[in-house]
Amino acid sequence: MxxxxxxxxxxxxxxxxxxxxxxxxxxxxxxxxxxxxxxDLAERLDLRRWxxxxxxxxxxYQEFLHGFLEAGTRMHHPSYLGHQTASPDFPAALAExxxxxxxxxxxxxxxxxxxxxxxxxxxxxxxDKVGFPSGxxxxxxxxSLANLTAxxxxxxxxxxxxxxxxxxxxxALLVPPSAHYSIARAAGxxxxxxxxxxxxxxxxxxxxDIAALPAALDRLRRAGRRPMALVASAGATGTGLxxxxxxxxxxxxxxxxxxxxxxxxxxxxxxxxxxxxLLDGIELADSVIWDAHKMxxxxxxxxxxxxxxxxxxxxxxxxxxSYLFYGDQEHDLLGRAVECTKxxxxxxxxxxxxxxxxxxxxxxxxxxxxxxxxxxxLASQRPAFDCPYEPESxxxxxxxxxxxRDVDHIALREHLLTDGAFHVTSTELADVRHLRVAVMAPAxxxxxxxxxxxTIERSPF
Length: 461
Fold this sequence. Notes:
By secondary structure, the chain is α/β, with parallel strands linked by helices. The protein contains 15 helices and 11 strands. One of its GO terms (cellular component) is cytoplasm.
């Protein structure tokens, strides 16, 4: 049984430590990340002794927590411009704390009625925002699992008996080069294999060439293959750019092709009046995924799988388990998801909405997009920097080429990360390596952007 006094004391220590940690991070105090080797860090935190002997107390926990936080990556830091992972808001953190204590898995309604009901309402809200008023959905643990789940629904639509009878070899996925790697991974998991992933023609930035779609579909069908789904991006992981969803949606509707939109990152722009046009046509999709742990400021993971027609998601899974499936289970989510034990993800989204409102979260999205555009403006003004496109979201790709020289951008990124001053990522566009920033933290400002550009120009490259 819990020692309630010990829990309350440790919780108070945790709250104070995290408050100080976030405050320091938002001020930009110290490095944005630490990259100690795992062996050194395990020794410093004394992990093996603690696991072997136990005996941690609130006092020793306080010391451990200090070292643990110091060695992590500070998502609230102004210089965090790395991967597409949220600078989480505190209401979502409260939800994690509640779930950590209550542990109500929501796939089975009787295991957590309040948490499941919150998820139902959050999904209803997300379906409405996407334009699926008659659809259904589920929250799952991450965009990769969400893409897999949506494609399982597409497979069930194309081949209703595939779950029991196996996957026909003539199925194909039409996929642009900008698609997230999880699409190809899902094809492998589903038994389709890499042969099923058919690349679509795209422009130099990876966006689907709509004019080439009729020919692509004709080639596929003449080869005796069936399109299980066409995948579009909103926005693409590498660039933050958006496919033309309306044009693609109208094509898919006219030719009976399931359209799946990976809007893991970009769907949150639906909350911004100035940016929701980027998702124009998303309501024509058959399935959409939307990650809350990106621009809705929840901690990882919380991803929605949304389908336009009620029943399409439920058909993705067909299984028997006498200890779970029996009687009236209309409120269970188990039939829509891979997971049986599903965390209270909806609570994180709900509390952020309850505190900030749709308008507040939309303003967060718009502000991050504006900061990214500002970085593009500043970089474009410096002769040594090349930006291949004007950003549509909070993601900007750029190259540093002083005097036209070909700089090793992987080495340049490593240089920036060495002392933890900046966290940036890298990607390839048209087979050319670029640096990439994703503006996630509200603390990132003009001072940060100028400093990053100055630091690159002072680098030995």
